[in-house]
Amino acid sequence: MPLSDTSEPRYAEIARLMAQSGDWITPWFEPGKPFWGKPPLSFWAQALSFRLLGVNEFAVRFPSWLSMVATVGLLIAFARTFFGRQLAQWAAVVYSSCALVYITSGAVLTDPFLVLGTTFSMTSFMMARHYPSLFWRYGFFVGLAIGLLAKGPLALVLVAGPLLLWLLPNIGGRMVQFRALPWTRGLLLTALISLPWYVMAEIKTPGFLNYFIVGEHFLRFIDPGWQGDLYGTAHEKMHGTIWWYWLQATFPWGLFGVGLLLPNLVKKGVRAVIIKPLADSAQLSYLLAWALFTPLFFTFSGNILWTYLLPCLGAFSILMALGWRKWVEQSQWQFALNTRWIAALVPMVLVLLSLFAYVSPDHFKTEKGLVHFAALQTKAGTPVYYVDERPFSARFYSGGTAELLKINEVSAKLDNSTLPVLLAIPKKRLNEVAHVLSVPVQKRYENKRYILFEASPGLAQTAMSIVAN
């Protein structure tokens, strides 16, 4: 799949600039403009991958896949400890084949690193009492540090929220779980890993902390039309949209889960199906708090994306596997037989989509084909000028050489150039640009959004001088 605008090539370009410049403190949105929207962990991993594997799509996506594989490993360890080996395997299958998880594992995003951190913390919290090794006892705090360096203070909320939701109904009986962790040393470890970067980032580009902490973590969520975003646009949605996103993110398993739950609720009642099992099992109630907190937290937020649900899908997957296994046992069906094709649904759809992208990449919002065509058909070093707007994919695939040209600058650029000029003009602005063209142009390439024209001002000026003579 090509990197398609906007998120993937935007983050890929930030990582490319980091790998190119060697600046490992401040991610740069473009030369001279710092990117304050996210901490650097994902950019560190992607830039390092560029250094090792070259600047290409596989290299920039590979760290996301590694993060998701590590997350699956943590979920398997947790589920195997409390529910057995077979359940752990199927929970991993459910998780890995949820639409959001499968897509995110091959996408250039910061979310795979956030979910690795929150999953490490949430699994370590329960595992520390059963396996009091250094890995699990301090894993909770390492997970917090990973989250802080991947997404920021939101990671603390997504870990503390489920814990409080689980603790409140039975504080006395569940505090023993909290005492299994070394809180003083652990929080010190979290601070030692994560805080130095925050300090250095503020020193290097003053104003970062105010924008990132206040803007990105408060105003973004409480103001649906927040206008302070320096790097994109607000995603204004109706309150409660997160639950519609939940159905998309968990597809196809969420629909099956609802289909299994509702008939049982009608037949046996809430007490028998939900309340009693939760009261009998601290692990089940813990998973439910983990699975529900994130969508509940974002229910009254209007500025959201479906990727925000990723941290809760691990717990959902274990609960889904438990419910599915119980239904299969009651129905006397083979568990593997009934999950095989359901688990394959999302991967098969993505394979077909990838094949389509390979055969016809210009149907996607990417400038890969146009930039590569321009590089092959013209002299080396000839830049492409994107008129009016310059997509992130153009910046990434051109290695930063694609330039931006405003409509009112086109005429002057053509008049002052003695060499052919490549203009990538948005289809929606063709009429506007046509009025300011001062020389003939020739169509060379067309994709979903742009048409590439070649203007030859030098030839036009020569022809006019001959006619004049």
From TrEMBL:
Pfam (any one): PMT
Membrane spanning stretches: 62-83, 90-115, 135-168, 180-199, 243-266, 278-298, 304-323, 335-359
Keyword Transmembrane: yes
KW Transmembrane helix (keyword) present: yes
Main localization (coarse): membrane
Domain ArnT-like N-terminal, residue spans: 8-212
Topology term for the membrane: Multi-pass membrane protein
Keywords carried by this UniProt record: Cell membrane, Glycosyltransferase, Membrane, Transferase, Transmembrane, Transmembrane helix
Any one GO cellular component localisation term in the record: plasma membrane
Protein location: Cell membrane
One GO MF term attached to the UniProt entry: pentosyltransferase activity
GO biological process: lipopolysaccharide biosynthetic process; protein O-linked glycosylation; response to iron(III) ion
InterPro entries: ArnT-like_N, LipidA_mod_glycosyltrf_83
Protein name: Phospholipid carrier-dependent glycosyltransferase
Source taxonomy: Bacteria, Pseudomonadati, Pseudomonadota, Betaproteobacteria, Burkholderiales
